[in-house]
Design goal:
The complex is a heterodimer of chains A (about 475) and B (about 250).
Chain A: E1 18-23, E2 32-37, H1 42-50, E3 57-60, E4 76-79, E5 86-90, E6 95-99, H2 104-111, E7 116-117, H3 129-134, H4 142-145, E8 152-158, E9 164-167, H5 172-177, E10 186-193, E11 195-196, E12 201-209, H6 212-222, E13 228-233, E14 245-252, H7 288-301, E15 305-312, H8 313-317, E16 335-343, H9 347-360, E17 367-372, E18 386-394, H10 400-413, E19 417-418, H11 431-434, H12 438-448, H13 457-462
Parallel strand pairs in A: 2-4, 3-4
Antiparallel strand pairs in A: 1-2, 5-6, 6-10, 7-11, 8-9, 8-10, 12-14, 12-15, 13-14, 13-17, 16-18, 16-19, 17-18
Chain B: E1 10-14, H1 19-29, E2 35-40, H2 44-55, E3 59-64, H3 73-82, E4 88-91, H4 99-104, H5 106-134, E5 137-142, H6 155-174, E6 180-187, H7 207-220, E7 224-227, H8 231-239, H9 243-248
Parallel strand pairs in B: 1-2, 1-4, 2-3, 4-5, 5-6, 6-7
Helix pairs in contact in B: 1-7, 3-5, 5-6
Classes of the chains: A alpha+beta (about 475), B alpha/beta (about 250).
InterPro entries (chain B): NAD(P)-bd_dom_sf (IPR036291), Sc_DH/Rdtase_CS (IPR020904), SDR_fam (IPR002347)
Family (chain B): Belongs to the short-chain dehydrogenases/reductases (SDR) family.
GO molecular function, one term (chain B): oxidoreductase activity
């Protein structure tokens, strides 16, 4: 009765690999067991959807959502990473047509030598195109380029009835799927518009901000000059230094910015990697003291002001990708990432929250503050014009559940919201206030998927 | 679903009038719990408990359940699980018995064993299967330090808890990797109506403290929780004391 069911593993050539395993998100909290199915073709994916039991199924990419978005207790989880073909690259128009399981890392490897870059990248390259649409991810260029789905020309969606639909922007199904956390169906392929680049290097301006007000003033005044902009904020700094930060902003370096030597291979994609974090990491290593020291060193190391520094893309966009399995440093208790956005004019809420976090002395590594641009059309897309703050906190921190509930209240009262791709603990009551299009989303799901085939732990927890 | 902190949205309490269970339930309702099932023998006390919890804002239902009727467990608990996922089962029923009387009256001694041990084996297995089918959930089993090493003063109760404790540990290992988490809670002397009138033991605790320890254990996904935590060390020493010494100890 309690033996893990190992079904069909390699029984016949036609059977999909499937295994019952405990699954978590990137934060490594709340593991639940699901049958992990790895379709290798669209037909296998369709068969998996048709054969989902009463507990349904949910697509999963590279598992970078922090919470329970790509988990489905007692049901099926469709690991989409075997669908990883790039079908066509249009080098004149700048579009790519690829399977949903292709990672942004793979796209960069293929596209950079051709002079193209992905339109939006989050803090990690190890997300799939399907996941990028499902979470409608944003990056450092949101204030200029919007979210990922803005650059999707169309995608093919496998819906609950087992049929495949071509979905284009401007339709309800597109807007429900962009940011819909995989609950409208399984994205099979997508056509994505690309960003032209002359080199694979970034030209980066770095400056320090003495406190939160200084930081917000700098971002407000000069963000429009940069394609990419982000601030790393030290939430352990207190008093007058509360909210001190390092701004790094930049754009793709033009060819003439490179040295003669670098110009010989201007589009080389280099991704140095350190050894992976060990599987078992001692608990308690991340204390206020150690994290505070790290933040201090990091702040001091940054130049007060430096312009035009050439950085690798991996250094600028994805510093944490250099340490595989960095999420293990939080130990077996895991961690939560809290990311919220409040609109312009709600700076007071942001200030209060930063002050509260800093007074509480959460041992939080560098948090990220970003100024969002225009809202995106996805019904459950996260970005709205305003300020977004993201921070990691060890899940075992005493008093954390109630503290984050209080922050939720502040965020909701200010008309803000938390990011579902990061969430693992929001109260369901707050969701409809945070996402006004939630009712439309539920209606569309009820019509498209009356049996609730697409179900995740997230959708159960928040009654999505 | 439980959240990142292991806090359940739905809770099934086996032994719905247990003071420790109700203190735990109150605490969890203050967090995330919205649906509560109180399983127990139908009684005014059970209804009162349900009413009190409703006052805290939870949707509470009662279900007839008797530890001494294992044949009926499948049907009674099956009904609960059929209504929707249960994120946490709190196995809290148990009787202390009366050591002096039970030594004279083997039938009443057996009733203690049946309630605390065989009743829990049945209810535990039924719950475990249902949790495994839904792929998630915590089974929290209220054991006791009394089960860690049998004492002259209450070995009938102690042996029943020893059986329960060993069963729950084994069940936890059997369910490892299935998404189901089994947590054994070993409180020391708890001041409650069950222990009213008894001489208080050192490191005595309260239902509220046990509830707090359960919440923390859920968050840490602990397999064993001692309340208070110092009992872990104390019992470790006592466990290794020679029989001749242990017999003479005033514990």
């Amino acid at each position: 009765m309690f033996v893990g069911v190992r079904r069909n593993k390699g029984d016949t050539v036609t059977d999909m690999p499937a295994d019952t395993v405990a699954v978590t998100g990137w934060g490594r909290t709340a593991p639940t067991a699901a049958q992990l199915i790895r379709p290798r073709s669209y037909e296998e994916a369709a068969a998996a959807v048709r054969e989902c039991g009463t507990r349904g199924g949910i697509p999963r990419g590279l598992g970078r959502a922090y919470g329970d978005a790509a988990q489905n207790a007692g049901g099926a989880v469709l690991d989409m990473t075997a669908l990883d073909r790039v079908h066509a690259i249009d080098v004149t128009e700048g579009t790519v047509l690829c399977d949903a399981g292709v990672s942004l890392h793979r796209l960069m490897e293929l596209l950079l030598p051709l002079g193209w870059f992905v339109p939006v990248t989050p803090g990690t390259r190890y997300v799939t195109v399907g996941g990028a649409i499902g979470a409608d991810i944003h990056g450092k260029n949101h204030h200029v380029s919007g979210s990922f789905a803005r650059h999707v020309r169309s995608f093919e969606l496998l819906t609950a009835d087992g049929s495949v639909r071509t979905v284009t922007p401007g339709t309800d199904l597109f807007d429900a799927t962009a940011g819909g956390m995989g609950l409208t169906g399984v994205v099979l392929t997508a056509a994505v518009r690309l960003q032209p680049v002359e080199t694979s290097l970034m030209s980066v301006d770095t400056e320090r901000a003495a406190d939160l007000d200084d930081l917000m003033a700098r971002l407000t005044a000069t963000d429009h000059r940069y394609r990419y902009s982000v601030a790393w904020i030290d939430l352990l700094a207190r008093g007058a230094a509360t909210g001190r930060a390092v701004l790094t902003r930049g754009d793709h370096a033009p060819l003439d910015a490179l040295s003669a030597r670098a110009r010989r291979a201007p589009l080389a994609f280099r991704t140095p990697r350190l050894p992976a974090a060990p599987a078992v990491f001692p608990e308690g290593l991340l204390s206020r003291r150690t994290v505070g020291l790290f933040n201090e060193l990091w702040f001091r190391r940054a130049p007060r002001a430096r312009t035009g520094e050439l950085q690798r893309m991996s250094t600028f966009f994805h510093p944490l990708d250099g340490v595989p399995h960095w999420n293990r440093v939080y130990g077996r208790g895991g961690f939560v990432q809290y990311q919220f956005v409040v609109g312009h004019g709600r700076e007071e809420t942001l200030r209060r929250i930063v002050r509260r976090i800093s007074e509480r002395r959460c041992p939080s590594f560098l948090a990220v503050l970003k100024r969002f641009g225009e809202a995106d059309p996805g019904w459950l897309s996260f970005p709205v014009p305003g300020w977004t703050l993201a921070l990691d906190i060890p899940a075992g921190l005493p008093g954390l559940p109630a503290f984050l509930d209080e922050l939720d209240d502040e965020v909701a009262a200010a008309g803000g919201r938390v990011y579902l791709a990061k969430d693992s603990r929001l109260r369901p009551e707050l969701l409809s206030a945070m996402y006004p299009r939630l009712a439309d989303f539920r209606t569309l799901r009820a019509r498209l998927d009356p049996r609730g085939v697409f179900t995740s732990d997230l959708s159960r927890r928040l009654a999505l | 679903m439980k959240d990142a902190f292991g806090l359940p949205q739905s809770l099934l309490v086996l032994g719905g009038t247990s003071e420790i269970a109700l203190a735990t339930t109150r605490r969890l309702i203050a967090r995330r719990t919205r649906t509560v099932w109180l399983a127990g023998r139908p009684s005014p006390a059970l209804d009162r408990a349900a009413e009190e919890l409703r006052g805290l804002g939870a949707e509470v239902r009662t279900v007839a359940f008797d530890a001494l009727e294992p044949e009926a467990h499948e049907a009674a608990l099956g009904k609960v699980f059929a209504e929707g996922d249960i994120d946490m089962v709190l196995l809290a029923f148990g009787v202390l018995g009366d050591q002096a009387r039970d030594e004279r009256d083997p039938v009443s001694a057996v009733r203690v064993a049946q309630t605390n041990y065989t009743g829990a084996v049945s209810a535990g297995l039924v719950s475990a299967r249902a949790l495994q089918a839904q792929g998630h959930g915590s089974l929290v089993v209220l054991s006791s330090v009394a089960g860690e090493r049998a004492r002259r003063a209450n070995f009938i109760y102690g042996s029943s808890k020893a059986g329960l404790d060993a069963f729950a540990q084994g069940l936890g290992d059997a369910l490892h990797g299935t998404g189901v988490h089994v947590m054994v809670v070993r409180p020391g002397f708890v001041r409650s109506k069950m222990t009213a009138g008894l001489p208080e033991a050192p490191l005595a605790t309260t239902p509220e403290e046990v509830a707090a320890a359960v919440e923390l254990g859920l968050r840490r996904r602990s397999e064993t929780v001692w309340v208070p935590g110092a009992l872990r060390v104390v019992m470790s020493a006592l466990r290794h004391a020679p029989r001749a010494v242990f017999r003479r100890l005033p514990v």
